[in-house]
Here is the input.
Amino acid sequence: MEESESESAAHVLLLPFPAQGHITPMLSLAQLLCHAGIHVTFLSTEHNHRLLTQRRALSARFPTLHFESIPDALPPDQAPTIHSLHDISSSLRSVTKPLLRDLLITLAKKDDESYRSTTIRCPPLSCVIIDGIMCFAIDMAEEVGIPVFALRTVSACSFWCYSCIPDLIQQGQLPFQDQDMDHPIKDIPGMEALLRLRDLPSFCRMPIDHPSFKFFMEQIEAITRVSAIILNTFDDLEPLILSQIATRFPKIYTLGPFHALLKSRVGDDLSSSVSSLRHEDRRCMAWLDSQQSGSVIFVSFGSLAKLSRVQLLEFWHGLINSGKPFLWVVRSDMLSSEQEEHATPVELKDGTKERGYIAEWVPQEEVLAHKAVGGFWTHSGWNSTIEGIWAGVPMLCWPQLADQQVNSRWVGEGWKIGLDMKDTCDRSTVEKMVRALMEEADQREQIFKSVHNFAKLARHAVSEDGSSYKNLEKLIEDLNEKIVM
Ligand SMILES: O=c1ccn([C@@H]2O[C@H](COP(=O)(O)OP(=O)(O)O[C@H]3O[C@H](CO)[C@@H](O)[C@H](O)[C@H]3O)[C@@H](O)[C@H]2O)c(=O)[nH]1
Here is the structure.
């Protein structure tokens, strides 16, 4: 192969947080930048590097995309889930952080040796884009003198809510104890009439000295030091909140929905599975083909959610009692650790045959686009939410962690594109909510109208005249300019 050289002089290191919901948007961003000729070093922890089986295909498609790995302290056989945010963040700090410093120094040198073997000449590192919860990397990049941007993989409304937590503490609204969970939160600008205590990010339910609370507070403080924020949202979805964020973060690039912008810019032939850390059960697509249009409720709680056996069975009974056909992603690591980890209750699988399909992992974007799917029961992870909006599918929300509490409130009461059933999980509520989402004509029509409107706005955002498309051009220009400066 002849030696070629990319036109871009920019070389960006992308540092995702090691979990599916963070790797997927970061890898979409990597492809968008490489498509514009920018050199990208995509740095995963060793464990996830091995699981990214499509690395070769991606590097062949994008010659300026380089995959690198960095050790963490997790056992090699550990499933790709976070058992504890605290464990993973302390392993990143103790093991990954010092190595990252050495890597940044190496990549920042001109004529870097590590790329001599490749056919593309790679310029010295010019920018680091970290996941917004990998803030320990800011110190390293500052030390080496490289600008840092942050990709925040949550919605703008969640990001803004996180940013306002220090204010709520200062005003004495947090921490809260034995208070009515429906107590309104009035002091988050832009969402005055919307949130209740139960809608705040889940760590707000913990004592202020809990490691998770401290972890998030550190990130909230540190992220104010980055030069720019990138968000997987689009301007027409969260305009008021984005203007609030701009009062504290002057440089924001909204590029969402990432997966749709990727298809719009790079092409339709890309599989949505390139970033998957798990094996997909594609047989579910044939099962969907056999179902009536709009009849199926798709149930997926993302890559991290844990359920107790009681919750799992309540959900299952509720689904069965609703009488709706369902496609349900039940990961083998989904039962909480004190339960039998790798057991899906036999009762559940056997009893499902006639009424639904249970899968370990599915091609979610394809499933949401299938005509048989008429509703999406989700944990309100941001990727799932924005994928649901893009697909125009009404949502039922059962949030569990972190930002999910905020997203589900916005889905139910902000955007009115679904129903929020947070903090409940008994079978009769599940049955009632599934029926309400799938059957109640007036309500369904309202939700449909609203979600279809946002799906239309999302299509505009990623088109050539749209905000996300233009913001990407601006980002590329700015990344390239940094080299000249
Ligand atoms: O069978 C499945 C199930 C999920 N997915 C994909 O996995 C991703 C899941 O992401 P998300 O919906 O955001 O959920 P989590 O995996 O829980 O993501 C974590 O990261 C998100 C982004 O920061 C946060 O919003 C969540 O709260 C946090 O739990 C999505 O792209 C899905 O399409 C599949 O491809 N197949």
Q: What stands out?
A: Residues 282-460 form a domain with the Rossmann fold fold (CATH 3.40.50.2000). DSSP finds 18 helices and 13 strands in the chain. Residues 85-108 form the longest helix (24 residues).
